[in-house]
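Usage

Read records sequentially. Each one opens with the input sequence:
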Amino acid sequence: MNNWLQHIEFVNPWILSTLVLIPVLSAWYWFKLRNQRRKLTISTIEHIKTLSTFRSRIYPFLPILRALAAIALIIALARPQLSLKEEIVKAEGIDIVLIMDISSSMLAQDFPPNRLEVSKKVAKEFIDKRTFDRIGLVVFAGESFTQCPLTTDHRVVKDFLDQLQCGLLEDGTAIGMGLASAVNRMKDSQSKSKVIILLTDGVNNSGYIKPMTAAQIAVEMNTKVYTIGVGSRGQALSPVSRRSDGGYIFGMANVEIDERLLYDIAQLTGGQYYRATDVSSLEAIYAEIDKLEKTEMEVNTFKRYSEEFRPFLLIGLVLLLLEILLRLSVFKTLP
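and closes with the structure output:
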């Protein structure tokens, strides 16, 4: 109902101002009727004080019928119309692949509850802003794989993000492998703008593809890479070893991020390197990337209207006719 009301417009909205006359005229009618009452002195009302008929109960509602009829007719004269908008959007979105580090160090608790959960949350908020883009997801630790290919179904991408957890892959930090997998996702892309966002909290120590080799392939594929180093400075409560049951043992460990490498990858591909030391800075980084990577779109809006005065006109006439019929038949004489 509220959604319907939001799309209602009036051709003659000034006519609605006459609605204020309804309570004024109602008050005037009530005072006039009160002053016209005649008094009759009788010895007792013992036998008639409980006398009540259908006519006497209905009679006070006749003025209400007339008032409702007037309201409906005034609304009809204002000509309410339902505005139906049609938009034709001509837009070419960007192809974006998110690379997410899921090595055990992403469980460090300097980003409460941990780096991975915060990174997933902020990435989903970023996805929600990219209405027309195709988005894919690549994950890496000691190896890498494509979690979700490029798609416009952002709900699927966010579902895959929700499922991410450390321990799915052999532990380690294979930045080159993760970047190579993301670039491979772009090989069939026809988009004029291709972007990779690489998020990691460590130093490349695994994989058979060097990070700068993967970055050079990205350049050849005309793909821009934004790199994000996530982690506070100094030390953080992080996994330091594993128990026999697979659980992690936490202890204070130095935060080590190869910022030089991430900077070089971004510079080579035309992107930028960012360092996120807390939740707010990570949110700000994604917000800045969102602003930098915008596509221009052409939106043509058409409006068409459907006349909605007929129901109000019908209601007003029916109520008015009912009031006249009752007054000329049932209430022709005093009740």
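Summary fields computed downstream for this record:
- The longest strand covers residues 80-91.
- Residues 2-35+49-85+302-328 form one domain.
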